[in-house]
Amino acid sequence: MTVLLQTEDLTKRFGGLTAVRGVSFTLSFGEVVGLLGPNGSGKTTLLNMISGAHRATSGQINFEGHPIQNLRPDQISKQGIARTFQLVKVLPTMTVLENTICGLAFGSSRMWGAEAEGKAMEKLHQVGLADKAKQPAATLTYIDSKRLELARALAADPHLLLLDEWLSGLTPEELQEGIKLIKSIRDAGASILIVEHIMSAIRELCPRCIVMNAGEKIADGLTGDVLQQQDVIEAYLGAPHHA
Ligand SMILES: Nc1ncnc2c1ncn2[C@@H]1O[C@H](COP(=O)(O)OP(=O)(O)OP(=O)(O)O)[C@@H](O)[C@H]1O
């Protein structure tokens, strides 16, 4: 399999706190990988370094064979990495369509006017929001604002999609819809790194997963195997107490 993303000994320190310590992993073209770990284990910080929001303290990030660890977020978008955020970020006074067109502006292909509108509408259809294209983003329900973030990320035609807890906060029915939507994106051949706490979703979507604990990678392998590893179970539940 051809490697799409490779991190090598990636570390991020915030003052005295090491949020990510020496993390190395690869993600191949067409792979969907889950990134798990308890709260504060460094998952979002890792995503922030890959997307350029944070500069790595040390280590390397190669994307399609080129180092990207010193690039700005807009440069990384243009290279073909798009993301969604843990706390949804849409532009509330702009319409759903305008928000999606914004994704095109930061993507790898430049597009304007009717062409951009057509492309944005295509992505809104894909996520099930086409009938709300003319509404201000502020009027959307929570799940629809999540769909919009996804449409905006997809509009950039990313080679790699980073999803930061995209499924969190949904009702059980919405969760099933959300999983179905991500499955359809996956089955169309996308490469995706999914940060998620919902184990059922990880099991359904990700054949492979990586687990972090206290900033370090503690497991990387087939999801079914990794979730049975003793150190992974302990990281989530706490080490067993002995009387
Ligand atoms: N900008 C920042 N400045 C200082 N410390 C930070 C910053 N961002 C994250 N941290 C710290 O780094 C550690 C890792 O945080 P991070 O958000 O990456 O964890 P996470 O695994 O994504 O957690 P969660 O599952 O709760 O989202 C935490 O201790 C957090 O407080």
Characterize the biggest β-sheet. Answer: 6 strands, mixed
Query: What is the count of structural domains?
Result: 2
Sequence stretches where pLDDT stays below 50 over 5 or more residues: none
Q: What's the total count of β strands? A: 10
Bound molecules: adenosine-5'-triphosphate
The CATH first-level class of the largest domain comes to Alpha Beta
What class would the helix/strand composition place it in? Answer: alpha/beta
Globally, the shape reads globular
Helix content range of the residues, please? 25-40%
Strand order of the largest sheet: 6-7-8-3-9-10
CATH superfamily of the largest domain: P-loop containing nucleotide triphosphate hydrolases
Portion of residues in beta strands equals 25-35%
Series of secondary-structure elements, N-terminal to C-terminal: EEEHEEHEHHHEHEHEEHH
Total number of helical segments? 9
Distance between the termini: 48 Å
GO molecular function: ATP binding
Organism: Sneathiella chinensis
Keywords: ATP-binding, Nucleotide-binding, Transport
Domain ABC transporter: 5-239
